[in-house]
Amino acid sequence: GYKQDLPPQGGYSPFEYAKKAKPRWIKGRYALLAFAVYWPCALTWWKWHFTRTKRIPDLENREAHIAMEPLLLAERNRLFLKRLVVNRDEEKKLMSDDPNWIPGTYYGSPIYHNKDIWHDPSAEEFWVHSKFKDGYYRQQFEKHYHY
Question: N or C, where is the chain less crowded by C-beta within 10 Å?
Answer without folding.
Answer: N
